[in-house]
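Subject: Protein record for review, amino acid sequence with backbone structure tokens
Why sent: The fold of this protein is of interest and is recorded here as tokens.
Enclosed: The protein record, placed directly beneath this head.
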Amino acid sequence: MTAHPEIKADQTLDCKGLACPMPIVKTKKAMDQLQSGQVIEVQGRTVTVNLPPQPNAYQEIRQTNMGKITPNEDEQREMEIGPNRCAVHDK
């Protein structure tokens, strides 16, 4: 379904069900093939399978945002990075 029916897409890219970063990678590759003035429609859905309902440090983040606690720099870094450190380079 086109978000703006008055705009006709020259190409439609189905990214439904793809996990990040694949929709971005596929969109970039498709955009590189477009001519000036052409329109691409990217179809997708948010992939939320296997995601926790909240981040691991959810309560600490809420308390920090409400001003109830003031974590030091190391604690802030740990809340930001979380347990998935595969793509994070610290220092």
